[in-house]
Structure formats: structure tokens, C-alpha cells
Amino acid sequence: MVDEKDLCFFDHPLDHVPGMVLVAGVLDVLGAQAPEWVDADGGRLRLSMSFDRMCELGPPVWLSGGPIAADDGPAWELVALQDGEAVSRASVRFGGTPAPVRTGPEGAVPADPALVHRHRPENVLLGGAVRVERAAVLVPPPGHRLAGAGVHTLGALVESARQMATMLGHTAHGRDLDAQMLWLSLEADLPTGLPVEVPLELWWEFAPARGARAVYRFAVVDAESGEGYGRLQIGVHTLSRAGYLKRRSAK
Fold first, then answer.
1. Rounded to an integer, what distance in angstroms lies between the CA atom of residue 5 and that of residue 229?
2. Does this model's pTM top 0.90?
3. Helix axis angle, 19-33 relative to 154-171, nearest 10°?
4. Is the separation of the CB atoms in 154 and 192 below 8 Å?
5. For residue 37, is pLDDT > 90?
6. pLDDT at position 14
7. 189, 168, 7, 175: which is closest to 97 by C-alpha?
8. Strand ranges (DSSP E) for the chain?
9. Does position 31 have pLDDT exceeding 80, yes or no?
10. 3-state secondary structure at position 50
């Protein structure tokens, strides 16, 4: 059963089960079944999740599935079921080589010639301006639902990215403060067992929203050295308050 008294996930009244509860449920199952991988010093987790329909309050949510065969390390496939229908699916891989994390101006694209008052592309000697938003990853206090034993937990990193995506929806994409952001997908390639003494930031290179939809791609970066540790990507569908209420009334 979903605990609606959990103040981490139900920080304020909600009329549905937030996507972060489903993420935490997947991580809890993995932590119970494969703790040696979830907590591994210097390990990696690659997580891919889809959010297929709204998860409602009240009816129980069941996580089913288990380990599957894979060539590059332990792997799991899980599905969250409510009233017999899938609300979310998760694919998990442990270990493997981390994907490259872009933290610099590699592969810069030339600026629009018109903006620099040039006509010939070969005369454009400036890359297009890149707007990068950076925000510190804060460590949850002791006893918090997402706190770890001296390490950056996977759940806390995902929640930090969720909060940054929400913030950027308002500050970068102009969404109203009462707009509702619904998760569509989550992709993560993250380190396990990374000490909290390593100061982390999330870096986001500006990308416009496509109508009501947006994909927020974050690099997880050492705030002091600029070293890239991982990546997070969250796909969302944002509705106005009126649009959200209309959708909920039609369920």
C-alpha cells in the first residue's frame, strides 16, 4: 500500500500517487533483493522507466518482475500494477561502462549567421550561445526517507532532478506556478556508493519545450572539478491547472 502519510512524497495534498513513489518503490525492491549492487562502492545503476497512466490513490500498487539474463551485468525488469493494469515499467542494469557525460563546449554549433551579421557560413567564428543552468544537489538530512549512510543515494539524485525539472518548467519554459507536471519517462545512468563529501551539481543546457511536452536532460557533475559522474533525463507533459482538472474529471 502507498503510505499517504509519508511527508517526503506527500509534502502537500495530492489527488494521485506521484511518480517519485514508483521510482522509490523500484529502488526499494532492488535494495532488498540486491543490496550489494545498489550500495556498491564505485558501481553504476542504469535505470529506464516509463509512466503509462496515472497512478491513483487508494487501490494497492504491486511491483512484479525480477532478474533477467543480460550480458553486461545483473539486470531486472519490473512492472507496477494497479487494478491489473500497468502504471509504470522499469528496466534496470547494474555495472557496465558509464556513458560519456558532456560538461564542456565540445561539438559547438556555429551561431546563426544572421545574428552575427555574416552572410557566409565560413565567416562565422563564434559558436551559438549556450545557456547552462546549474543547481547544487543538496544532501537529505539524517532520518530523511531518501538519506543514505554517507553516500548520495539514487533516490535523492532522482528527486533532485525531478525538482530541477519542475523549477525549469517555471523559470525557463514559462509554466504557471499552479501547472501540473506529469512524468512520461525517466532515464538514469548514475554512480552508486558516491560519498556525500563529493559536492554535486546538476547541469542543464537550455532546450525549448515542445508544446506541453519537454525532456529535461541533466549532467551530474562534481561542483569543484567539473568531472561528470552521471546523467538523468526526465520526460514530462505539463498541463495548466484547468487542463489538469478537466483531465481528472474525465477519468
1. 34
2. no
3. 160
4. yes
5. no
6. 80
7. 189
8. 43-51, 61-68, 75-82, 85-94, 132-136, 180-192, 200-205, 213-222, 228-239
9. yes
10. strand
